[in-house]
Amino acid sequence: MSEPVGVSGNQLRAIIERIEHVEEEIKELAEAKKEIYQEAKGNGFDVKIIREMIRLRKQDPKERDELETLLEEYWQAIKQAAPTGKAKTKDRGGLLGLDPDLSAEGTERGSLESPAQ
């Protein structure tokens, strides 16, 4: 079989091999990341909170501040709305101004803020 016109088999093979190499590196990095999260969990850290912190640190600070403000406004609106039969909650603040007692599941979540704040 002859080579298609305008396609270099050697060049195409090199590109494919490079992509395969990068995919293998990504797989190895994902495994390393998983091990780091396991280490954090083993040291008593909440992995879900760590993931959220990483997500927040990636955001533009101005956008994050705007999101915090809107979330706080929405939480306040929910708290001021007529009760729907659920127990009344107290305001403790928390990450992004979320009231940990107002979760949809009705379970408390911890705050990332230090006690000094």
Question: Overview of this structure, please?
Answer:
With 117 residues, the chain is mostly helical. It folds into 2 domains: 9-45; 61-112, no CATH class. 56% of the residues lie in helices and 0% in strands. The chain is built from 3 helices and no strands. The radius of gyration is 24 Å and the shape is elongated. Residues 105-117 have low confidence and may be disordered.
State the main characteristics.
117 residues, mainly alpha, 2 domains, disordered C terminus, single chain
The counted number of beta strands is 0
Beta-strand share of residues: under 5%
Element order: H for helix, E for strand: HHH
Range of helix content: 55-70%
Number of domains: 2
- Number of contiguous helices: 3
Give the gist of this structure.
This protein is an all-alpha fold and 117 residues long. The chain is built from 3 helices and no strands. The chain has 2 domains: 9-45; 61-112, no CATH class.
Q: What secondary-structure arrangement, pairings included, does this model have?
A:
Blueprint: H1 9-42, H2 47-58, H3 61-80
